[in-house]
Write a structure and sequence with these properties.
Elements lengths: L28 E3 H13 L2 H9 L3 H7 L8 E3 H15 L4 H17 L14 H6 L1 H8 L4 E8 L2 E7 L6 H17 L6 E6 L8 E6 L2
Antiparallel strand pairs: 1-2, 3-4, 4-6, 5-6
Helix pairs in contact: 1-4, 1-5, 2-4, 4-5, 5-8
Length: 213
């Protein structure tokens, strides 16, 4: 028996059309789970704020974002970046850095929460289990790039992003927010994530040193 099709996490707005999934071979793409979490974040800010942000984007981008977003489909990574940039430009109220971090935290809550697609990667009081699976989680959601994991002590690990197209500093901020919240959801306390190298600042990789109690 053929498997049931993936259920959309966001319903389309009236009159919207279903976009064709991006072809992974045509450019840098990401799974719909990332785009869906950004739209959930935006809609949580209220209808008026969501409309302000969407109207800032091109007609083509709006058609995709107002359509039915499927977690298992592939979408342009640049679309995610444009949506994040519009959200921060209109909603940050001057604190751009913190809003990018907040986007990452929200994504962790959405995808690692009780109904999240990444929930199986959580193990109670074991942040290392989740971090150990980051390479697999990353490759499942990104068409390029590699994210690695190195345990340096029972309560410390280093996560690195290498290869793929050079990332902007904003993407690193969302990664910091995601890592902090993911470790907290795994039972870590007093969590810190420090970016010690960044490709946007000339580093050979984006390196995140994660510590917790």
């Amino acid at each position: 028996m053929a498997p049931a099709p993936a259920k959309p996490l966001l319903a389309p707005l009236p009159g919207a059309t279903l976009p064709l999934p991006s072809d992974r071979l045509l450019g840098r793409t990401v799974k719909g789970t990332l785009l869906i979490s950004r739209m959930q974040y935006l809609r949580a800010r209220g209808t008026e704020e969501a409309e302000r942000v969407l109207r800032r984007l091109s007609a083509d981008d709006q058609q995709v974002l107002r359509g039915m977003l499927l977690p298992s489909s592939w979408y342009s990574a640049d679309l995610v970046s444009r949506l994040e940039t519009a959200i921060v430009a209109l909603l940050s109220r001057g604190d751009r850095r913190e809003l990018f971090v907040d986007l990452g935290r929200f994504s962790a809550d959405a995808n690692l929460g009780p109904k999240g697609v990444q929930r199986p990667y959580l193990r109670e009081d074991d942040p290392q289990f989740l971090l150990r699976n980051i390479p697999r989680m990353y490759s499942a959601q990104h068409s390029d790039g590699v994210r690695t994991y190195e345990q340096t002590s029972p309560t410390e690990a280093i996560v690195r992003t290498v290869d793929g197209r050079e990332a902007g500093a904003e993407g690193c901020l969302t990664a910091i927010g995601w890592l902090r919240r993911a470790i907290e959801l795994s039972g870590g306390r007093i969590v810190t994530v420090e970016e010690t190298q960044c490709r946007a600042r000339g580093g050979s990789c984006c390196e995140y040193v994660c510590r917790w109690a």
